[in-house]
Structures are given as structure tokens and as C-alpha cells.
Design a protein that fits this description.
Low-confidence stretches: 1-23, 25-31
CATH class of the domain at 41-154: Mainly Alpha
Order of helices and strands: HHHHHHHH
Number of helices: 8
Structural class: mainly alpha
Distance between the termini: 54 Å
Helix content: 55-70%
Radius of gyration: 20 Å
Mean pLDDT: 80
CATH superfamily of the domain at 41-154: Regulator of G-protein Signalling 4, domain 2
Number of strands: 0
């Protein structure tokens, strides 16, 4: 199974934003941000959402830089790896796929030459952290802003808005408000 075929992990647990009134009770008019609205807030939010990751990958593939998000995801998954043997195997796979001079999906990171195969013998969960941070910042300050202006993002946002404004969605919202306001 290659990184391109691997199922996408849920990177972080979803974040629920809550607005409280002056007495500390949840605001009844508050809606939790979802989908493209949440993605547009930050790259972190985008990477928390499997659908967001899917759309971002689709965009990066068109820009010939999908390896960046795949490397980032691989590092996130690597941090959860238990056991020295499994860690060594995954570390080697990440190195050979993204960091080696012969890598099939080589990422462009500074200090790459300093990371050699000897480090793979004594792996630890944060061994790729500096490189992962470089790739995250590259995506955040380069690709992410272009993604938010891309057809992939804008078309997805438009279809979300059409779903929200559909008669079925409005009818369901009215029914829900009648139930809660009785």
C-alpha cells in the first residue's frame, strides 16, 4: 500500500468552537463552523477534516506538490506508531518515500542531507518533526492561500452553500426550531 493509496487518517480530533453568553451558557444562535468555512480559517482546520485533506490533495496533485501533504500525513501517523520494530519500518518507509535522494515522492526540505539512514536505527516519534514543520510552513504560506482561491475550493464551497439553501435543508431547520422553541 503506497502513501497515495493509503486511507486518510483523522489527523486531529474535531475542534468545537463554542460561543457563550454573558452568563457562560452556550449561545443558542451559534452555529459550529463546518466544511469550507472551517477550512478557510486555518490550514490546521483543513487538515483536521478528511474531506478537506481530500480536496487539498486534489489541488496539490494539480500543482505537482501532493508529496508535501502526504509527507505531513505520514509523519502524523508515524508519531502514533508503537514498538521499536514498527517504528523502524515506518521511519525507513518515510525516508525512502520522501527524504532519500532516490525517493519517489521527494519533498524539498532544508537540512535533508543531514538526515541520513543511520538515524533510522534509533527512531523516536518526533524524529521527523523539524522537517514536518518545514513542510507545514511551506504549505501554509504557499499552497494553502492558493488553494483557498482555487476552483476546487470555490466549487466545493458553492455546492455546500446550495445544499444549505435548499428547500429540504430550510424545512428541516424550521422543524428543528419549532421543536426546540416549544
Amino acid at each position: 500500500l503506497s502513501w497515495n493509496e493509503a486511507p486518510l487518517p483523522a489527523v486531529f480530533p474535531p475542534v468545537r468552537l463554542e460561543i457563550n453568553d454573558s452568563e457562560g451558557h452556550p449561545s443558542s444562535s451559534h452555529q459550529t463552523l463546518k466544511g469550507t468555512s472551517k477550512w478557510a480559517v486555518s490550514l490546521e482546520n483543513l487538515l483536521e477534516d478528511p474531506e478537506g485533506v481530500k480536496r487539498f490533495r486534489e489541488f496539490l496533485k494539480k500543482e505537482f506538490s501532493e508529496e508535501n501533504v502526504l509527507f505531513w500525513l505520514a509523519c502524523e501517523e508515524f508519531k502514533k506508531t508503537q514498538g521499536k520494530k514498527q517504528m523502524q519500518e515506518k521511519a525507513k518507509e518515510i525516508y525512502m518515500t520522501f527524504l532519500s535522494s532516490k525517493a519517489s515522492s521527494q519533498v524539498n526540505v532544508e537540512g535533508q542531507s543531514r538526515l541520513n539512514e543511520t538515524i533510522l536505527e534509533t527512531p523516536h516519534p518526533l524524529m521527523f518533526q523539524k522537517l514536518q514543520d518545514q513542510i507545514f510552513n511551506l504549505m501554509k504560506y504557499d499552497s494553502y492561500s492558493r488553494f483557498l482561491k482555487s476552483d476546487i475550493f470555490l466549487n466545493h464551497k458553492k455546492s455546500e452553500e446550495q445544499e444549505e439553501n435548499s428547500p429540504e435543508a430550510q424545512t428541516a431547520a424550521k422543524r428543528a426550531s419549532r421543536i426546540y422553541n416549544t
